[in-house]
Design a protein that fits this description.
It is a single chain. This protein has 133 residues and is of the alpha+beta class. It has a single domain (37-132), classed as Alpha-Beta Plaits (2-Layer Sandwich), CATH 3.30.70.3270. The chain is built from 4 helices and 5 strands; from the N terminus they run αβαββαββα. It has helices at residues 2-18, 53-57, 92-96, 122-132; strands at 40-43, 63-69, 75-83, 102-105, 119-121. Strand 2 (63-69) and strand 3 (75-83) form a beta hairpin. The protein is elongated. The termini are far apart.
């Protein structure tokens, strides 16, 4: 009884030892993600018309945005916040956006240390992305 399980476990271990190496060296080599991976959000401030369709389409009420009218009586985006701790990355907000200003991206390095960092100011993130690129 004990010998059979032990031999089976050793067999699995031996197969893994002589088989192909499946370990990825993560920081040095970035993984190739499938095209349908959804792991982050991006906002193009110039495309956003402050229609609030994304916030209305979100099932978890993750998106909060405010706007104000400029001199030409046109809505201008003032603030855009997302609570990523509650976001499902379902993509309903991106589908509702008529100008495609909000997109789901494959940026997967979103590790944080403090819970307050889950509240993203999308305007600041867009500015930081623009400075990096």
């Amino acid at each position: 009884m004990f010998g059979k399980g032990l031999l089976q476990g050793l067999g699995i271990t031996f197969k893994r030892m002589v088989g192909p190496n499946i370990t990825e060296f993560y920081p040095e080599q970035k993984p190739k993600l499938p095209t349908r991976v959804r792991s982050s959000m991006a906002l193009d401030r110039e495309k956003c018309i402050s229609c609030n369709m994304c916030a209305m389409a979100c099932p978890n009420s993750v998106i909060k945005l405010t706007s104000e009218k400029n001199e030409a009586n046109k809505k201008v985006l003032k603030t855009y916040h997302m609570d990523l701790g509650r976001c499902l990355f379902c993509g309903m907000c991106t589908e509702a956006c008529p100008t495609k200003a909000l997109t789901v991206t494959q940026d997967y390095e979103n590790a944080i240390y403090e819970p307050d960092e889950m509240y993203w100011d999308m305007l600041k993130r867009a500015e930081q992305k623009g400075k990096v690129e």
